[in-house]
Amino acid sequence: MSVVVKIKEAAVRSIESIYGVALNAEQIQVNATKPEFEGDYTVVLFAFVKQLKKSPDALGQELGAHIVAQNPSLFTGFNVIKGFLNLVVANQFWLDFIDAQKNNQQYGIQPANGKKVMVEYSSPNTNKPLHLGHLRNNFLGWSIAEILKTNGYEVAKTCIVNDRGIHICKSMIAWQLFGHGATPASTGMKGDHFVGDYYVKFNDAYKAEVAALVASGMEQEHAEKAAPIMKETQQMLLDWEAGKPEVMELWRNMNGWVYEGFDTTYKKIGSDFDKTYYESNTYLLGKDLVESGLEKKVFFQKDDSSVWIDLTADGLDEKLVRRKDGTSVYMTQDIGLAVHKYNEFKADQSIYVVGDEQNYHFKVLKLICQKLGIPAADGIYHLSYGMVELPTGKMKSREGTVVDADDLVDAMVHIAQQKTEELGKVKDFTSEELVELYDTIGLGALKFFLLRVDPKKKMIFNPEESIDFHGFTGPFVQYTHARIKSILRKQEDTILLSISNDSLLPLELELTKQLEIFPTVLAEAANEHDPSKVAIYVFELAKTFNGFYTQHSIANAESDEKKSLRIYLSKLTAQVLQRGMSVLGIRVPERM
Fold first, then answer.
1. Domain count of the fold of the chain
2. Is residue 174 domain-shared with residue 271, that is, in the same domain?
3. Who has greater pLDDT, 48 or 30?
4. Phi/psi at 284 (nearest 5 deg)?
5. How far apart are CA 571 and CA 577, in angstroms?
6. What is the pTM of this model?
7. Quick check: is 552 in a domain?
């Protein structure tokens, strides 16, 4: 149990004992004490002043005295400053913590809690390769899955592939018109890039046809519908839905090319799934749920036979769930897939990692599932994230201005090589070791930069800024880990002594405090579905260690006991940095 949790529970007990008021630990706000004040942790009192009918100062004095008296092994003193209760944690608590964790290889990993979570991410379309936006999606999904695993959840990582629809047919039509039998093998292109090029070719041809029709006197809106290439595409979609053999064969071939490309990219970026669903297999799901919803009067039917749900009482609007021709809409498919996935995995929570342009869709999806009484509907959670832009602005796949994931990863590895060679510290590495090191640094920089920002925020990605060995970056954390490993290799022959009762020096204490909150940070990241909390934590921990090591020598420590203590702290720091980075999907090198 972390010291923050102990403080919250001690405050709850004391408030009930003194004032007869029952609170829960979540209502108690505890922060690290500001450096200018004496103390380690601060209890914020303002929230209880009115309820307990006490002035902040009187409340602080009474509560502080009771907490310290009831927990003498944990606290040695307190002070009250303007409504803030500052508690001084006993030196022995920190020493006991170091002693307990010094050989604990599982530090931060919680036991199984019996709860299942499904995390759905990536969701690519088979008409184009993965791009920068997909990278943020994949990194978020994969990371939150690993963070949840570390917190004791059983996790299933899933992906839904959008492999049907008008956008897929656009690439197919363009290949028929302009491909002349070319294949990825015949052109030497990666399959997803190959198919993506035809999606761009479709858009170019479509714009040219629309422009020609408008020039001939047709209105823009009419021209967009009358363009021959669009009509061919719409016919192809009908042929696909009818199962026309030659269309199905082309569809399977082109999707196969894309899947080979996706697999290469997923392997390169370290993304994987326990189960992949395909929209071509799931788009008919949910039709029976419409009939069930009508019987339960959750849905209603209009005069034109279309079926809707009225969500105005929930602050939304009416939502179509079945068209008048009897075909389903995306919402119906998602409801059906939610049921299908629950029946397969029985997950308590289902997390959808999807961009914030779909906020409304997932709000409606959860509401409908709840009203239909679908199992675990309350556990539907939309991990909404902001779009990623480049310094040059937004990207558009139709116009071919998207940054492909493969190209970006390759560029990051190249930048990592340039930056590392500039430092000139890898002359004793073999060529194979250098290849692995540049890949570790480049991909680590990319992941860290995309994960260090709160998912809800839009962000601008700057490749050069992400690989800075001195900034808020992955390489800075990686370098600190490698530095600690180098320090420890020089101390391999040191005979380690037991933890002594010496007082911790300020920077030793600061480092210990940060190490002690690691499980709490992981828990907060899981509860808030926010990997940036881990990224910020490991960066701050790396900074603290560097400050600690600058001030306190290990090799020339004041005593053998101090030397042992600092080695223990260094080992635990390296372990926590490695585990923190690993849940972000980032490797940390032993040497840099």
1. 4
2. yes
3. 30
4. -95, -5
5. 10
6. 0.92
7. yes
